[in-house]
Amino acid sequence: MAAMDANSGYDRMKELKEFDESKMGVKGLSDSGITSIPRFFVHPPETLSDFKNSSSTCTNIPIIDLSGIINSKDSDHRLKIVEQVKEAAKTWGFFQVINHGVPISVLDETIHAIKAFHDQPHEVKAKYYKRENELGGVMYTSNNDLYRAKSAAWHDSLQAWMGPEPLKVTDLPEICRNEVVAWDKSATEVAEIVMELLCEGLGLEAGKFKELTFLDARVLVGHCYPYCPQPDLTVGITSHTDPGVITVLLQNHVPGLQVKHGDEWVNVKPVPGGLIINAGDFLQIISNGEYKSVQHRVLANSSKEARISIVIFFNLAKWKGDGYHGPLPELLSPKKPAIY
Ligand code: OGA
Ligand code: NI
């Protein structure tokens, strides 16, 4: 007898479609009070057993204090920070920055506004619900890859292209419009500072990445990971690497993000006022492997309170379009040949 398929005995496509067409997202499912999750969210045992092997140690990704460089010209101190950023990007691919110059009130308002969007009745959000987001657009969806992934994940997202062309601001949902615009501005300022440090760490001019327009094409994604009644059977986001140059991530106090470090999955503890930065695939390639684009994932949320995270992916369009396909020539030498 043929092995039983985990999905046999039910019409998976029909259930996916019903969920998609309901436009209710996982937030809607969660709010409806269900006690078991639809089967298409259930992940295979090999994925789930890997989730059980999460690190129980107290390691956290490196925390880098930017206070000394924001308003200071102390070059010795700056060199120290450059070293920290370089080391973190090489060995972890992830770090958290604190004292980055953005007031805590701006972080809080951004989180509240994204939460407020997701907290609306799904009939209100439905008007933004789509599957494809053209360059420059805004969309709300549950699981970008709903029809492609083997199993769905327990999150919904609001996405907006913030550049290279300025977004039509009125396309953003009113409930989070001003906050999204303000956050994009603040996060881009932090990204610029971090890119300068990353450049210096490679021995490049500080402004090199900006000059190469890496701050321009960017997508903001406001994720909601609502309470999941069966968090051991599914995931918040499956393990992946990010495609762009860097990602800036702001999260609320509900944990769930994990980063692969060696053979271990390390929990990223939310640090009040902290912003998480990670290197994307594009940075790994252009840096000729100096900086690492590392696997990360999010656990399904077992807390009654929703986990909210807002990510901005920088230099996303270049990945798909033309631009650079290999390491920056100035980083190559006979001793350091291109590995991509
Ligand atoms: C992503 C991502 C993590 C999070 O959107 O690429 O990794 O904490 N998100 O939401
Ligand atoms: Ni990611």
Automatic annotation (TrEMBL):
Listed transmembrane segments: none
Cofactor entry: Fe cation
Keywords: Iron, Metal-binding, Oxidoreductase
A GO molecular-function annotation: metal ion binding
Ranges for domain Fe2OG dioxygenase: 213-316
Family that this chain belongs to: Belongs to the iron/ascorbate-dependent oxidoreductase family.
Name recorded for this polypeptide: 1-aminocyclopropane-1-carboxylate oxidase like protein 1
Organism of derivation: Quercus suber
Taxonomic path: Eukaryota, Viridiplantae, Streptophyta, Embryophyta, Tracheophyta
